[in-house]
């Protein structure tokens, strides 16, 4: 039992650490949705995350994905939305002065610089914070040898962390990805890409979003493993308590040995003998 408990301790710590790193990496990754191309001589890739986006282009500028989300064309770099959204103002894009392109671009900015992405950022930040708390709590649980009542809250927190990540994915897909995908600005670029798909991959969901989804599903699995660990700790504690009580009984100076403890039949014989003695003395 001791070996099984120790192995489960290590597995829970490693799983919680892996999930924490995964959540933080996905939250900061600029690769939730991306497009790329490589014709053997030139290549490019663009990705967009929750707090930043990136562009990487190698070779001839003629081989490119078309118009970018950000104007002017973004150089090879990873840029934060804070810097790129400084010029954004909350206005009705339909009445914006300028050409049709500026109005379409305004719609994209209203998503990435406005409320939809901000809500997803807040939810994902909560998930990242919960992952740190779960990891720290699992370490404390592994170090302390006995089960405590507070560990029940750890199970709830693990399930909550997974639920929050699922919520972040659902909100991002519904209010960010689909809205961008259905916008005129995006659909024009997507149509040009799909019309000439040779050596190209058009805008699509990338690994950071899928990794967040997987991590959200693994947190309930972590809760199950922690529940098994708590059961093992309870069983181990009962065994240790029983052994400790036995040792205390053996160490007591006046504690009768097993062979010296009178049996019920012996006790009745003693009582009958005593009664016979008393009766004879009264005659």
TrEMBL record:
Membrane spanning stretches: 7-25, 118-141, 153-175, 207-232
Keyword Transmembrane: yes
Region described as Disordered: spans on this chain: 255-283
Keyword Transmembrane assigned: yes
Protein name listed in UniProt: Uncharacterized protein
Keywords for this protein: Membrane, Transmembrane, Transmembrane helix
């Amino acid at each position: 039992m001791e070996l099984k408990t120790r192995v489960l301790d290590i597995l829970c710590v490693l799983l919680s650490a892996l999930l924490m790193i995964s959540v933080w990496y996905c939250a900061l990754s600029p690769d939730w949705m991306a497009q790329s191309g490589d014709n053997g001589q030139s290549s490019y890739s663009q990705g967009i995350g929750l707090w930043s986006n990136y562009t990487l282009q190698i070779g001839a500028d003629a081989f490119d994905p078309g118009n970018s989300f950000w104007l002017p064309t973004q150089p090879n770099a990873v840029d934060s939305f804070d810097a790129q959204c400084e010029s954004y103002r909350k206005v009705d894009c339909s009445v914006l002065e300028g050409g049709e392109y500026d109005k379409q671009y305004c719609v994209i900015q209203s998503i990435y610089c406005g409320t939809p992405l901000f809500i997803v950022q807040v939810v994902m930040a909560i998930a990242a914070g919960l992952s740190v708390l779960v990891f720290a709590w699992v370490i404390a649980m592994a170090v302390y040898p006995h089960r405590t009542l507070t560990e029940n809250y750890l199970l709830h927190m693990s399930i909550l962390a997974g639920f929050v990540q699922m919520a972040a994915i659902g909100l991002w897909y519904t209010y960010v990805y689909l809205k961008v995908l259905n916008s005129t600005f995006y659909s024009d670029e997507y149509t040009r890409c799909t019309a000439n798909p040779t050596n190209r991959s058009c805008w699509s969901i990338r690994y950071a979003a899928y990794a967040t989804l997987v991590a959200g599903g693994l947190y309930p699995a972590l809760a199950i493993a922690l529940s098994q660990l708590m059961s093992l700790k309870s069983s181990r504690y009962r065994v240790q308590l029983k052994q400790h009580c036995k040792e205390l009984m053996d160490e007591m100076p006046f504690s009768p040995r097993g062979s010296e403890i009178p049996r019920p039949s012996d006790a009745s014989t003693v009582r009958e003998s005593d009664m016979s003695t008393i009766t004879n003395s009264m005659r």
